[in-house]
Amino acid sequence: MAERDLVAAVDRAARLWPDRRAWTFDPGESLTFADVARRSAGLAAALAERGIVAGDRVAVMMHNRAEFPLTWLALARLGAAMVPLNPHYRGEDAGHILEHSRAAAVVTSGDLAGLVREALGSAALDAPVLHVEQLPGAGLPLEQGATPPEHTVAAEDTVNIQYTSGTTGRPKGCVLSHRYWLEIGKGLVEGFPHLSSEDTMLTAQAFSYIDPQWNLVAALMAGAHLVVLDAFHPSTFWSKVREHDVTYFYCLAAMPSLLLKMHPDPLDRSHRVRVVQCSAIPASRHQELEQRWGVKWYEAFGMTETGADLRVTDEDHDELVGSGCVGAAARAREVRIVDAHDVSVPRGEIGEVVLRGPGLMDRYEADPEATAAAFRGGWFHTGDLGRMDEAGRVYLVGRFKDMVRRAGENVSAREVEDVLLTHASVRLAAVVAVPDELRGAEVKAFVSISGGSEQVIVSELAEHCGQRLARFKVPRYWEVCDDLPITASHRVAKTRLVSEPGRTWDRVDGVWR
Q1: What is the CATH number of domain 407-512?
Q2: Among 230, 182, 165, 221, which residue's Cα sits nearest to residue 203?
Q3: Local structure of 406: helix, strand or coil
Q4: Is 190 strand, coil or helix?
Q5: The domain over range 232-400 is classified in CATH as 3.40.50.12780
Q6: What would the pLDDT profile of 456-470 be if each residue is shown by its tens digit?
Q7: If you classify domain 1-206 with CATH, what class do you get?
Q8: What is the pTM of this model?
C-alpha cells in the first residue's frame, strides 16, 4: 500500500475494484469505485473552471450526501483544502470558521445556501457560493472530456482545515495533510481491525466531522463498502446495520448509552458485525453492550489533531472489558504519561497523555502559540489525564479542563458522568465545575432524564452517586434539561451549558435557584 495521497488512493481503488460498490448513502445513491474516481475528477474540472486553484481553502456545507466526499476528493485533486462546515451551524459560528480559515469559496447545496450567505455576511467575506446541484460531476451530468488541470500532489500538501468541535472553547483549525489520512487508513487495514474488501462499514455522523472522513479513506484503501446514514438515530440504528449487512462500525461519546436506552429487540443479535470500535465506552456498561448485541466492543482513542492513536485489540480485549482502558499505542504511535515538567511518571501514576509519530496534524491554523504549546518537547500534549499499566496500556481519568478542584480534592467529571449514566432514568449527563467562595469550586450535574418528577429524580440521582462515589464527588448543584446540546462529535457542548444556566437545585441548601 504505497499511496502517498488521497488522489492515488482513489485511482488505485478504481483500478482494482472498478465495479464494486464503494459508497451507499441512506437515503441517497450508491457509487462504485469507478464512479467515485470519474465523478470526483469531473467535479475537480468544474471547480477549476470556477476559479479554484491549488492552495485555496474551500468551505463545504452539506448534509450527508455523495456530493460532500466527492467535493473533498475533487479539491484534493486540485491541491486545494476543504474546510468542512457543520450544516447545523448558524450564521455566527459558521461565519467564524469562514473568516478564520480565509475561505476562497463555499460549495453548498440549495437548501443551505441561505445559511451560507448569512454566515458570509457575519464574516464580512465576499466569497463565491457554488451550488453543488449546478456543478458537473456532482449535481449535473459530467461534461464530455472534462478533465482537471494537471497538479502534482505531495503527501505534505494540506487537504483539510478541520475545526475541532469546541467542547471546551472556540474551535481551532487543525491543518491536516494527505499523510495524516493515509496513516489512519493504513493502520486500520494493516493493523487491527484489519479492514478488507470483505467488509461493509457504516458511519452515522455528519460528514463535516472527522469520523466519516477516516471511514471513507479506510474503505478506499481496503476496497470496503461504506454505508453512510443521514444521521445517528438510536431507534433505527441496528435495523440499518442489519439491512446493509454491516460488518464494522465506529461510534463514540453518547452513542452507546443512547443505544442501550432502546427497548431490547428479538433481532438484536441477528447481524453480521464482527467488530465495533468505540471511544468512551461506559465502563460500567461495557459487558452489557457485548451481551445484548453479541459482538465485542473495542475501546479506541484519537483526536482531530492526532488521528488514531491508542486502541484495544483482539489480544487484550477479554482482559480489559469494563476496565475503562483505551489500549496501547497503535501502529506508528508512541505514548507517554508525563508530569507538569514533561518528565515521564512511574507506571500507575497519573499524568498527561502525550503522543508522537508520523501523520499528526501540521499545526493549528493561524495560532502559532497554541501550536507551540501543543507540540512542546516534540510530543503532542493531549490535555487528557491518564495512567499506564505495566503492559503499556493507557487508562484515561479525565481532562485537565474537565477536573473539578473542590476543596483540595480532584473530581473527575467523566467518573461522575459514568456513574450517572448507570441510572435507568438518565439519557445524557454532563458534569462541570462552578465557582464557590468557600471551596474554590463545586460540582454541578446537568442531566437529561426520561420521565418522572424533577425533584424525585434529582434526589434519587444524588443518592445513586453517594452509594458509588466519595461524598465530595457527589454533585451539589443539579439542572434537569429536556436535552443536552451535542457537538458534531456527539459530545456534550459543556461551554453552552455553562454559558446558559437554567433552574438549578442546590442539594446542600435544599432550594431551587
Answers
A1: 3.30.300.30
A2: 230
A3: strand
A4: helix
A5: yes
A6: 899 999 999 999 887
A7: alpha beta
A8: 0.85
